[in-house]
Please model this.
Amino acid sequence: MIKLKYILALFFIFSFVGCSGNSGNWGWYVIDPTTKSGLANIKFLVGGFGATILLSLIAALISIILGLIVALPSFSNNVFFRSLNRIYVEFIRAIPLLPMLFWVFYGLPVIFQSLGLKIQIDAFWGAVITLAISDSAFTAEIYRAGIQSISKGQREAAQTIGLTQYQAMRYVILPQAIRRILPPLANQFIYIVKMSAFASVIGMQELTRRANEIVVTEYRPLEIYTLLILEYLILVLVISFGVRWLERKLGSDESNSN
Amino acid sequence: MKEVIDINNVSKYFGKFKALDSVNLRVMRGQKVVICGPSGSGKSTLVRCINRLEEHDEGDIKVLGNFLTNDRLCLDSIKSKVSMVFQQFNLFPHLSVIENLTLGPIKALGISKKEAMKRALYFLERVKIPEQAFKKPNLLSGGQQQRVAIARALCLEPEIMLFDEPTSALDPEMIAEVLEVILDLANDGITMVVVTHEMGFAKKAADKIIFMDEGKILEENIPSNFFKNPKTHRSKKFLDQVLNH
Model:
């Protein structure tokens, strides 16, 4: 441990030396807003926010609906339906995002073509579909866990006051489960935002792609990727602040208030 | 008197464990039956079979003239006529007390909201907590929660009330207030099957006491005889333990 500390200290000293000298190791000028070119670079980089947010939002929305559809068979008494849910979840969860993205973007159009369908998949929708499907396995598990966390006694009580299975779900189980489902679902949104960076490899003009493009022209990877990380940090912090607020609101709803 | 529950040679298995072993029991309209016995003897399983929270594996159960099968129509026809009070109350935590009471009548019986409210307030009055109507259940004491649960069951105006150890999860001081409410109902003429360890209650309220052990009914007796001369060794031993504590 002590050795590690010294190494880290040395590392910092070297980097500060580099900083104070004019050896050219640092080039913050590429994103210096006081210069014309720096400002233009920043504008270009920040311009990716819209695409990243839109991409994540649509993917999350589809994933929320798709996840529910995938989760529903898991509550069935029928083994066949339950195994459909298991197969989907295990299969989709096992595929890394990047290969799936390639498969959807480059592979799927081939299938469409051979079927004689004239469906084009652009980078945006390729990324949306991939993110949504990949994430739906996780949202399905969140729904399942949330609904199963409601005690058996609640279902039984609903049954003894004469409610049908559907009514029990609608008026007793879901209203309680939703409070437990929403926070992890919102958390899952953070993953989507981060995973959306993969869309850059198929040419989607979002935050990461734009950073890559500036790096290629300016050749200042450290400075630009630092800014890129800060961009994601801000985005994720805003979302997690929202998630906390949601948790507080739902939590206080359940424990007090009359 | 007409029989409302007729249990004939019923057995129930959990895996290889035989929870009920050829049980026979008849309950007449208006009768109060107390089921007692050591834990794990199958008391709860038996009452849970009466409203089909558990399915029996062998034998027949006839409730209000209908055999209990998986036929949906038959189950629907008895569902709201047999109500249950649980050990753990099982109130709906996301709904206020009054909403807990009106949900069943509105959704299952299809009566109007106004009518359901009226009924709910009447039964809250009967269990002596009308002032808690608009609170969430978790702000109430255990005894109050169980009384709400009883009121919720009553709101369906059932013909049979099942109680599954209604006081076992309560502090000693709260047991009395809940038993008082159940006794009050007993005087009303509704049919009751009560699983309980409260022998004082059994003495006061029961028409018939059932003693169970290892899934079998070992003794069926009227309270005065049951407490004075239990028929079997097992029930005598049980009574010694319960009463001398």
Residues 16-23 of chain A have pLDDT under 50 and may be disordered. Residues 10 and 16 of chain A are 10 Å apart (CA to CA). The two ends of chain A are 54 Å apart (CA to CA). The interface with chain B takes residues 151, 153-154, 156-164, 167, 171-172, 175-176, 179, 254-258 of chain A (CB under 8 Å).
